[in-house]
Design brief:
alpha+beta, Beta-Lactamase, 2 domains, five-stranded antiparallel β-sheet, five-stranded mixed β-sheet
């Protein structure tokens, strides 16, 4: 094998390791530090660091660094604010796939001690399409001219980093959206159960208060009190269920099927819940969490309204789609003549459509209910 081919294989191996580090780590800062170490190894350079731009303020901040000279590493103030390379990037002078600038580091200007001999670095612009993401800097005490191959490799690394950074930011936004979605779900549940039951309890107590003023039969008074107590107990159970639904990380350290089985045991009511799995195609965290919440909402509805004896949760996963079916043998209802918010149907429909999927319901009085959520996986990025 020629030396050139060996070098090419080594470069591809390191690029693959960089891509793996950026794609596998949940912690973006840690992933960037690992990638920086491999960038230095790729080109035989001594140091590297990456600036990112705050999305809100568009101010630069040091996101990760590897083997900085002591004068920069030990003096945080030296690594704050704007500098020549960031100013150049902000003006757009670094834009362009072949435009990797080698500049004299303005943060080291006039310094000798603690610089480890570093004077110059190469700056690689990071973009997500036309959006400014940040700047990757690499340097070495004994600076050498970068070959066309070096420039190509650095731009490839920059592209990998830009994609990973933008994906991480989009994931953070999706988590925030999920938290808001959960608040809406809880608000709907509280309105549909706790709020309505509290109104019913209040009406019973007002009736009781009016009856106490007259010569009402004691049996009627007792029945009114018992009704109020029963409603209060139902309300307490609903409150406990709401708290259970909010427990953190239901999927943490568990598969989706395991989490669904636990969910069935906890909030299946008096019904016997069976969970069936067809296929084992891996799913994204977002889809797993959404499917779990949809099953949770469906089981809540069954426990509150269906009076079912048996419930089946069936999860089918293939490379093309995932399907969740929740079926019960309860009292059922006429879907055409019921408010959607009464059985949480709006929330289920919204969740399915947010994933590009569909939601269908089959039910009839005294014939049970079947909910079917179908999510295509080709849409996932």
């Amino acid at each position: 094998m020629s030396d050139q081919l060996k070098q090419r294989n080594r470069e591809l191996s390191i690029l693959n390791a960089i891509a793996h580090a950026l794609n596998q780590s949940v912690n973006l800062d840690q992933a960037l530090e690992t990638a920086l170490e491999k960038v230095a190894a790729l080109l035989g350079l001594s140091t590297s660091w990456i600036w990112l731009m705050h999305e809100d303020t568009h101010q630069p901040y040091l996101a990760a660094a590897q083997n900085l000279p002591p004068v920069l590493r030990d003096n945080p103030s030296k690594m704050g604010g704007w500098c020549y390379c960031l100013d150049t990037y902000e003006k757009g002078d670094l834009k362009g796939a072949a435009n990797v600038n080698v500049v004299a580091c303005s943060r080291l200007k006039g310094l000798v001690e603690g610089t480890d001999g570093l004077q110059y670095h190469a700056s690689i612009p990071l973009y997500a399409q036309d959006k400014k993401v940040g700047v990757l800097n690499v340097g070495s005490a004994e600076w050498r001219e970068l070959s066309e191959e070096d420039l190509r490799l650095l731009n490839t690394v920059g592209d990998l980093m830009s994609i990973a950074i933008e994906r991480a930011r989009l994931y953070e936004k999706s988590v925030e959206i999920g938290a808001v979605d959960e608040r809406f779900r809880l608000a709907r549940e509280l309105h549909d159960t706790l709020g309505q039951n509290l109104v019913a309890i209040l009406m019973r107590l007002e009736t009781l208060d009016a009856l106490l003023d007259g010569n009402t039969d004691r049996k009627i008074l007792s029945e009114t009190v018992r009704d109020a107590i029963a409603l209060a107990r139902d309300n307490l159970e609903d409150a406990r269920r709401a708290v259970l639904n909010l427990r953190a990380a239901p999927l943490e350290n568990r598969t989706l099927i395991e989490a669904l089985k636990t969910l069935g045991q906890n909030i299946g009511g008096a019904a016997s819940v069976r969970v069936k799995s067809i296929g084992e195609h891996p799913l994204s965290i977002r889809i797993e969490a959404s499917l779990y919440r949809m099953a949770q909402e469906a089981l809540n509805n069954i426990a509150q309204h269906a009076d079912a004896q048996k419930v089946l949760i069936e999860l089918t996963s293939t490379p093309q789609y995932v399907q969740l079916v929740v079926e019960d043998d309860g009292r059922g209802f006429d879907p055409e003549n019921v408010r959607e918010d009464r059985y949480g149907l709006i929330g289920l429909n919204e969740r399915a459509h947010l994933l590009g999927g569909s939601f269908a319901i089959e039910s009839a009085p005294d014939r049970g209910t079947r909910l079917e959520i179908h999510i295509p996986l080709e849409r996932e990025i």
